[in-house]
Design goal:
Largest sheet of chain C: 2 strands, antiparallel
Shape of chain A: elongated
Strand order of the largest sheet of chain C: 1-2
Largest interface: A-C, 51 and 53 residues
Structural class of chain A: alpha/beta
Distance between the termini of chain A: 40 Å
Mean pLDDT of chain A: 86
Strand content of chain A: 15-25%
Shape of chain C: globular
Order of helices and strands of chain A: HHHEHEHEHEEHEHEHEHEHHEHHHEEEEE
CATH superfamily of the largest domain in chain A: Response regulator
Radius of gyration of chain C: 20 Å
Distance between the termini of chain C: 52 Å
Chains: A alpha/beta, B mainly alpha, C mainly alpha, D alpha/beta
Order of helices and strands of chain C: HHHHEEHHHHHHH
Number of strands of chain A: 15
Helix content of chain C: over 70%
Number of helices of chain C: 11
CATH architecture of the largest domain in chain A: 3-Layer(aba) Sandwich
Oligomer: heterotetramer
Chain lengths: 424, 409, 308, 248
């Protein structure tokens, strides 16, 4: 549950007036400003900002663009919290190039044109140095032309279907092949799965993901016994559950999203399919700890999920991250894969800016490939030439308490491959 | 006697149109930067829908909760043309099948579906932008109105149609772009529609089309058809027993509303650069009704101002207080219905118009003085006035009998 | 498609599929009954119906938290308390809404539609502010989840049975309320002839308020029951609205029996088609089927042919 | 039977049932050219339903309605109007938001189709006819008034005027003097006498004095059937009628 945010978070409301003040400061005689610059030992604004971004001598403004109203607010809230946390932590450790990060938060309202409008506002009016945001593919597709036209930088946190590689986006979540292939290989190898039933919500990510899954399953010489899509928001799954019972697949491969998830898992359990018996086994790539909150841990107990991050990951980075996150947003909060990926955004941007020695979008872009983050909660990540992240994939087993137990972790970082040959 | 001639544009309507034209074409372009102007252009595309709703709902008493369907269809037709243009083999050479839209390629479609082919032609597209939604509206309305489905039932069925179309568009993503819609539209006959200059030009095109639509709607409204619509809304049976086939008039006005919405949709696609199924659904369709209600469901000009106002409020409120926005919008729905059923236009007529000088009302001075100030606004309901809002009378506006039950007495 | 299965498997599947249809039927009836009372008897279109349902779900959530906190020993039975609470809360809110909003709009059915839509937006935002944007997980007593195996193949979901029994109880309750109680007589009198009902001493305002309240209260119970099969979030209510209205309209607005019959038709059509087609197409075809029938029979399936 | 074409209206074997209840049951009657026929009967006798059936508002279950040789039962309302049947409702049914002039103009028999209406011109002929009718129905002074502001009696007249302007051959009036003052009632009787020249009229009425004043013949309906028919004098003395209706 979302707790009332501590006073710190109200900062975005007073943003406008503060920025006005800062502009006034910037207009003070240069000599005065010089003094302050020297004292902070930060590079001069004229050096780090040649393209008119919202960078002053002691601040840099970025944008946060997620849905905080509408149907997608359910999913995007975690990302907003993670991005704010990362920004606050960066500020506490001295900011970026000696400048404190300020953010302007906009509401995409779960409506794609609104995303486009707001992204344009952030880029054109507010001249933000980077935007952390978007969740659904549709919202990303809507803002993409805007970012390309006005040359902005978007850090996009969600695992998604791939088939895209924009110079103006850094994809901090996994693209489909990273998530899918490792997961399927694991169930085939460890659980001896031979037949699969593919199920998804009816839109591009589940469809494309299932397409990749099907190709891979068929490549392995195994069988897909059913493939099915339901409209977003569908709440009746009894018929498909019967079909699953009839076809008796070894694995239900489920990419159901949003509110449908809750209905699906509750009805699955009620229909007598006990996932802990693994007959059939359920493998999902769409249910993070965030979703389990709504589903109820007891209803999804025994399902497997393949993604790159689970809150229960056992490493010092993650321990610190989870602790900080709970301190900031409340004890009963959970952290899902996307939330973690969103947390990476500001850190990756900071690293790229510092490597480039400039906030200029072109320089940040040029500096981005090869940027690594050893402090990532998920472990080590590195930005690939194609703007996606090298990352590991893990398989988690859902527990009644709503957490995943990590049962498998890929040995090496998996190379992002947004345009997989032979899978299209 | 002043009933001798029907004037399509009585003086005060003319003044209203002139002011609106001046605001849209002069004041706003001078006052706003391109970004904000483009936003206004986007709001104006909703005004097309609102104008259609004034005719169809305000005058005809037919409430459609599926206007987004026509807005969307018009927009999709335009988007298909633009998408084909931006999908030439050269710029799509990385695809496994170059020359088809990118989303088709992602869905393993290797050949352009036959019904996309005609959209290579701009004249055909412009024709289809209006013809496809109107044809669709025609089919729906013939089926419904010939069977005398009306009022609430019609509203709910249009809602269901919006739901059906949304699911279809999302489900057939290989042909429609699915939930993402048709995105990344770049040029119109080689002219880049994303530049600031293009946006400004498109804004003016949008304004001109809007004014033309307003004029068309005004003529219909002042015409005998307009009076039949009002008559039909109030006493449908009487109209029928005066020898009119009521359903034909309903079909006509519903198709007109669809046509306006479709033009709005096409302009939306051009100005915003994409089209998505989120416009076809139920929520935007109902929101479009509120634009019309806020402006005043009987006022064409009000519809335009209503669309501008609500959207402007939405943008600015959601920039600073996103949580408050839904409260505001909800309160707006309730407030308009409870307190101001005739919206901004009603307030204007009640509180401003009586104080306007005689030249505004367009009467010969003698006539005005002869009538004197006997009633506050009795003049308002003579045939010369622009809106049939019986202000000054304290009864519930008789104009709100929109809902007819199919099987009520 | 059935060639590869044995006869017993097929029977089992058909039995379960029939059962799935019955569950869907109960769900639709439960969703639609409250609306049928409000829309059918009062002519008010309550677009906030879904939000009332979700309110019931949130009340259930709160009650479950309360029980697990203070009375864990009684947790198994909390659901009944939760349903009663859900009814009470939505009933009261319903009466409040009637008093503040609906009663001003009885002559303007299309306007109630807009006003209640506004109300639904406000309620959604309230839920979001109070409960957070995320969905909440309602913990159910163990006995309610899981299934009861009839044979090796045929398993009956317990929550499905629960919903069916609940639907039956509520339907019978409404039947007695509407057709056997004094209040029901008054409601029907007011529906048939408002001035006359007023003249013979029925307090029509009170009847209206109670009717609206009870309609909302039933929505609350439905929402409470739906925590077993669906999600509870600020916008979950919107998922139900189109289906609910179609059920009511399809049945013929003034007939409760019609509502039940239409729920049956729609649920059977949908669950059969879902079995043979993909989910999205089944949904589209069901909606088209309903719209098509409504065009042929605009009064709905069971409307009485009345004298005008 | 063979001579039915001599009648303006021939109703034969007409029945309609609403969910089993027979509101009109095997009803037959004939209206002559130029006749004023008054239909009376106790509440629920099916009077208004008969008018609804004739003008197409309700579909007959059985039987035929022939108007000047044309079968009306299968025709749409507006087509029946075009055939020459006009109908006035029990409650004045006028367009309150339009002026008296516009009310009458809308009933002027021109521009019935959508495109006809779009092309409709308010020419001299229209204005002249509207003013003539307004004069007939005592509303010349009120032409510019919104119809909603008229008195109840004036509204009744306006609706009659809206029928007259259609020039129907058969005029059906449902309780034309209900709610009128004595003076208005007298004026209405004069009006009715004036307008029946050259057309037939069916009137439903409860007011016996008014019925006596205007009726050529009277049909008494009871439980959807003809109970008695003939001159007012004859009907008044029919013992069956006295029993169910006048006797109370």
């Amino acid at each position: 549950m979302m707790k009332k945010a501590p006073p710190k978070a109200t900062r975005d409301d007073s943003q406008a007036s503060r920025r006005g003040l800062l502009k006034m400061l910037a207009a003070l005689p240069a000599s005065l400003m010089l003094a302050s610059q020297i004292s902070w030992a930060a590079p001069a604004t004229s050096e780090v900002n040649t393209s008119g971004l919202a960078v002053t001598d002691d601040t840099v403004t970025v944008g946060i663009l997620h849905s905080i109203t509408g149907t997608m607010a359910i999913s995007e809230t975690g990302s907003v919290q993670a991005e704010k946390l990362a920004i606050e932590q960066i500020n506490a450790t001295g900011g970026v190039l000696g400048r404190q990060i300020e953010y302007i938060q906009e509401d995409g309202a779960s409506d794609w044109p609104t995303f486009a409008e707001k992204s344009k506002k952030l880029l054109v009016n507010d001249k933000v140095a980077a935007v952390f945001g978007c969740w659904t593919s549709a919202s990303r597709k809507a803002v993409l032309p805007v970012f390309e036209q006005y040359n902005g930088m978007l850090y996009y946190p969600t695992f998604y279907e791939g088939l895209e590689q924009s110079p103006n986006v850094i994809y901090t979540g996994q693209e489909a092949t990273q998530q899918i292939i490792a997961g399927i290989d694991w169930v085939v190898k460890e659980k001896g799965a031979k037949s699969f039933y593919l199920l998804g919500s009816d839109y591009i990510w589940p469809r494309t993901s299932n397409k990749i899954a099907r190709k891979h399953i068929e490549k392995l010489g195994l069988k897909v016994v059913g493939e099915e899509y339901y409209p977003l928001g569908h709440t009746q799954f009894n018929s498909v559950i019967n079909k699953i019972k009839l076809r008796k697949p070894d694995v239900i491969y489920a990419i159901v999203v949003g509110g449908s998830n809750v209905a699906f898992y509750k009805q699955l359990k009620a229909a007598g399919i006990d996932l802990t018996k693994e007959k059939p086994l359920l493998l999902t790539i769409s249910v993070t700890e965030d979703e389990i909150l709504g589903i109820g841990g007891e209803n999804i107990d025994g399902a497997y999920a393949a993604m790159k991050y689970f809150q229960s990951l056992d490493n010092p980075n993650n321990e610190a991250f989870v602790k900080a996150f709970k301190e900031r947003w409340g004890d009963d909060i959970v952290i899902g894969d996307v939330t973690q990926a969103a947390y990476l955004g500001p850190w990756l941007w900071k690293a790229a800016v510092e490597k480039a020695g400039s906030f200029d979008i072109d320089k940040v872009r040029a500096a981005s490939p090869g940027i690594e983050l050893t402090t990532a909660p998920e472990g080590y990540v590195r930005i690939h030439e194609n703007h996606h992240l090298w990352s590991k994939t893990r398989v988690g087993l859902a527990q009644p308490d709503g957490q995943y137990k990590v049962v498998y972790e890929s040995e090496d970082l998996i190379e992002p491959n947004p345009f997989p040959e032979g899978y299209q | 006697m002043n009933h001798k001639q029907i004037t399509y544009f009585p003086r005060k309507d003319l003044i209203g149109f002139a002011i609106l034209a001046a605001v849209l074409m002069l004041v706003l372009p001078m006052a706003l930067d391109v970004f904000r102007l483009n936003l206004v252009g986007k709001y104006l595309t909703y005004a097309f829908v609102a104008i259609g709703l004034v005719l169809c709902w305000g005058y005809g008493g037919i409430l459609s909760l599926g206007q987004g369907v026509f807005f969307g269809l018009g927009g999709y037709c335009m988007a298909m043309f633009l998408k084909l243009e931006s999908s030439d083999p050269e710029s799509t050479k990385i695809q496994s099948t170059p020359g088809i839209p990118d989303f088709m390629d992602w869905n393993q479609i290797t050949e352009l579906p036959w019904w996309w082919e005609p959209f290579y032609s701009l004249p055909f597209t412009l024709f289809a932008v209006v013809a496809v939604p109107v044809l669709f509206a025609f089919i729906i309305s013939v089926a419904m109105f010939k069977r005398r489905v009306g009022g609430v039932y019609f509203a709910i069925i249009t809602q269901a149609i919006a739901a059906i179309l949304t699911i279809l568009i999302i489900g057939q993503q290989g042909y429609t772009g699915g939930v993402n819609g048709i995105t990344d539209l770049r040029t119109l006959l080689g002219w880049d529609i994303r530049t600031d200059e293009a946006k400004t030009i498109l804004y003016f095109v949008c304004c001109l089309l809007l004014l033309a639509s307003l004029a068309t709607a005004q003529i219909i409204r002042r015409n005998k058809v307009g009076r039949i619509l009002v008559a039909m809304r109030d006493q449908e049976d009487r109209v029928r027993f005066s020898g009119y086939d009521v359903s034909n008039f309903k079909i006509f006005v519903f198709c007109m509303a669809a046509a306006f919405s479709a033009i709005g949709g096409a302009m939306f696609t051009l100005q915003v650069g994409f089209m998505s199924p989120s416009f076809v659904g139920i929520v935007p369709s109902i929101e479009m009704v509120i634009y019309c209600a806020v402006g005043g469901r009987l006022s064409l000009l009000g519809a335009v101002y209503g669309s501008l106002l609500v959207n402007w409020a939405k943008t600015s409120l959601s920039e600073s207080f996103p949580e408050l926005w839904l409260f505001g919008l909800g309160a707006l729905f309730i407030g308009v219905v409870l307190a101001f059923p005739n919206g901004i236009a009603g307030l204007f007529q009640r509180y401003v118009e009586p104080y306007m000088p005689a030249w505004y009302h367009g009467r010969v001075a003698a006539k005005a003085s002869e009538k004197g100030n006997s009633t506050t606004s009795g003049d308002n309901v003579t045939p010369d006035t622009s809106e049939e809002v019986p202000t000054g009378s304290d009864k519930q506006p008789a104009t709100l009998k929109g809902g007819h039950y199919v099987n009520a007495e | 498609m059935f060639a590869e299965y044995t006869a017993s498997e097929l029977t089992a599947i058909f039995a379960m599929q029939g059962f799935a249809g019955l569950i869907l039927f109960s769900v639709l009836v439960l969703m639609a009954l409250g609306l049928a009372i409000i829309f059918g008897q009062m002519g008010v279109i309550n677009m906030a119906h879904g939000e009332f349902m979700i309110l019931g779900a949130y009340v259930t959530y709160l009650t479950s938290n309360l029980f697990s906190e203070y009375m864990p020993s009684l947790f198994d039975g909390y659901f009944f308390v939760a349903m009663a609470m859900a009814f009470l809360v939505t009933f009261l809110l319903g009466m409040l809404v009637e008093w503040g909003l609906i009663r001003h709009l009885y002559k303007r059915p299309l306007d109630t539609l807009l006003a209640t839509w506004g109300l639904s937006l406000i309620l959604q935002q309230i839920y979001r502010s109070v409960f957070g944007a995320r969905e909440v997980g309602v913990t159910l007593p163990d006995w309610m989840m899981g299934s009861y195996p009839l044979t090796d193949m045929v398993e009956v979901p317990i929550n499905g049975i629960f919903v069916m029994v609940l639907t039956l109880v509520i339907s019978i309750g409404i039947y007695f309320l509407m057709f056997r109680s004094r209040w029901g007589k008054q409601v029907r009198a007011v529906v048939q002839n408002r001035p006359m009902a007023g003249a013979v001493g029925i307090n029509t305002e009170k009847v209206d308020r109670l009717t609206f309240g009870i309609g909302c209260g039933i929505a609350g119970i439905a929402g409470s029951a739906f925590t077993m099969i669906g999600s509870t979030g600020p916008t979950s209510g919107q998922l139900y609205i189109v289906d609910t209205f179609l059920v009511v309209v399809f049945g013929g607005a003034q007939s409760l029996l019609g509502t039940i019959a239409s729920a049956f038709t729609i649920s059977q059509a949908q669950s059969t088609m879902e079995f043979f087609l993909s989910g999205s197409m089944a949904k589209v075809l069901t909606l088209l089927f309903v719209v098509g029938i409504l065009m042929l029979r605009p009064q709905g399936l069971f409307a009485l042919k009345i004298r005008r | 039977m063979s001579t039915q074409n001599d009648f303006v209206l021939a109703v034969e074997g007409l029945s309609v049932s609403f969910d089993g209840f027979k509101a009109v049951n095997d009803l037959s009657f004939y209206v002559d050219e130029g006749e004023i026929r008054v239909i009376i009967g106790p509440n629920g006798a099916g009077k208004t339903t008969v008018l609804d059936l004739i003008c197409g508002r309700t579909q007959a279950t059985e039987g035929s309605i022939r108007f000047r040789g044309k079968e009306l039962t299968k025709m749409k309302e507006h087509a029946i109007v075009h055939a020459g049947v006009g109908r006035k409702f029990q409650n004045p049914s006028i367009y309150e938001d339009l002026t008296v002039f516009e009310n009458l103009e809308l009933s002027y028999p021109k521009g019935y189709t959508v495109f006809g209406a779009l092309a409709f011109k308010r020419d001299a002929a229209v204005i002249e006819e509207v003013e003539r009718i307004a004069d007939t129905i005592f509303l010349s002074e009120e032409l510019e008034k919104p119809a909603g502001l008229l008195s109840h009696g004036q509204k009744q007249w306006l609706e009659i005027g809206m029928l007259l302007i259609q020039k129907p051959d058969l005029l059906m009036l449902d309780e034309p003097v209900a709610g009128m003052s004595v003076a208005e009632r007298r004026q209405t009787a004069i009006l009715l006498r004036r307008i029946t020249e050259g057309r037939s009229v069916i009137v439903i009425e409860h007011d016996m004095h008014f019925v006596e004043e205007i009726a050529d013949r009277v049909t008494v309906l009871h439980q959807g059937k003809v109970l008695s028919e003939g001159s007012m004098e004859r009907v008044k003395n029919d013992p069956k009628v006295v029993e169910v209706y006048l006797g109370h």
